[in-house]
Amino acid sequence: MPNLVEVTYEQTGKSKMTNELGMREMQAKAYEQRDVKYLLLKAPPASGKSRALMFIALDKLINQNLKKVIVAVPERSIGGSFSSTDLKSHGFFADWQISDRYNLCTTEDSKSKVKVFKEFLESNEKILICTHATLRFAFDELDESRFDDTLVVIDEFHHVSSDTDNRLGEVIRSLIEKSNCHIVAMTGSYFRGDCVPVLLPEDEAKFEKVTYNYYEQLNGYEYLKSLGIGYHFYQGRYLSAIDEILDTDKKTNFMCLVQTLANQQKISIKR
Predict the structure, then answer these.
(1) Sign of CA dihedral 150, 154, 160, 162
(2) How many other C-beta atoms lie within 10 A of the C-beta of residue 60?
(3) Per the count of CB atoms within 10 A, which of 58, 61, 197, 246 is most buried?
(4) Residue among 202, 140, 198 at smallest CA distance from 176
C-alpha cells in the first residue's frame, strides 16, 4: 500500500554538528535565551533537550546568581537523562554534576524523597532530580518562598494542565505568582489529548518560546534520506501481520519495533 506521506531530507548533518561550546543546533538556539525568567522549549525527541537544560541551568547557577536547580521528570527512568555529564571537555565552562543523594529518581521511598528534597533546600548542593510527584508532595509541605532564587525545570511539560484539578499546573501557577524562581518548561509535544490547554493564555504569554521543529531535526541528520508514513489493515494479532509490513531488506528502528511488540504482548522491556 503506498505511503500517505513521503518526505525527502537534505541530509545536511546540521542538527548533529556542535559549536565551540559543544552545543548542537537546537541547544545553541535554546542557550541564546538563557537569561529569560520563564522559558518554554519545544523540541522533538533525541534533539538534546536534557543537555540544553544543563547548559542553561549551569549558566543560571554560575552567572545569574541562582542558588539551586530542581529538575522534575514524569517518571524515574527519565531521570537518567540528567545524570552527571562531562561538558568541559567539549568546550563548555562547567560540568553538570549531581550528588547521588539528590538524584531522587533512584529510590522508591516517597516519604524519604520529600525529606531529602527539603534537606536539599537547606544544603549547599546545587542540583536535585526528582519526579513530578515528588515535586508536588514536597510543595505541599513548603512555602513558595522556599523556591526563591531557584530554577525549577519541568520535563515533559504537557503533563501540566490549566485545569484546576491538575496539581502540577497549580504548582507552576503558584511559583509564578508567589516566588521569584525561574522556570524552564520542556516538551516534545505541546498539547494534551483531553483538549485542556497546558497553560492559560495569560500564563503562557509570560514564557519566552524556543521551538525546534521535527523538520529541522530530521533534515539535519546525516544519513536519513526519506520518511514515508502509510497504514496497513490486519485482522487478529499484530504478530500475524508483521511479515507483511516490514521489508527485512531495509533498516528499521529495532527498539521501537520491540517495544511495540512488547506492548501488544503486555511484557516489559528493560534497556
Answers:
(1) positive
(2) 22
(3) 58
(4) 202
C-alpha cell belonging to residue 12:
545536511
Cα–Cα distance for residue pair 146/211, rounded to 1 Å: 31
Q: What are phi and psi of 89, to 5 degrees?
A: -70, -15
**Please, which residues bridge with residue 160 across strands?**
none
Give counts: helices (H), strands (E), the chain.
9, 8
Q: Give the pLDDT of the chain (271 residues) as one tens digit per residue.
A: 577 778 787 777 766 788 999 999 999 999 999 999 999 999 988 889 999 999 999 999 999 999 999 999 999 989 999 999 999 999 999 999 999 999 999 877 666 999 999 999 999 999 999 999 999 999 999 999 999 999 999 999 888 888 878 899 999 999 999 999 999 999 987 777 677 778 888 999 999 999 998 778 777 777 777 777 777 777 777 677 777 777 767 666 554 545 554 554 444 444 3
State the Cα–Cα distance between residues 216 and 229, nearest whole angstrom.
18
The span from the CA of 253 to the CA of 249, in Å, is: 13
The x, y and z cell numbers of residue 140, run together, are 505541599
Per-domain residue ranges of the chain? 14-217, 232-271
Residue 114 to residues 104, 119, 184, 216: CA-CA distances in angstroms?
9, 9, 22, 40
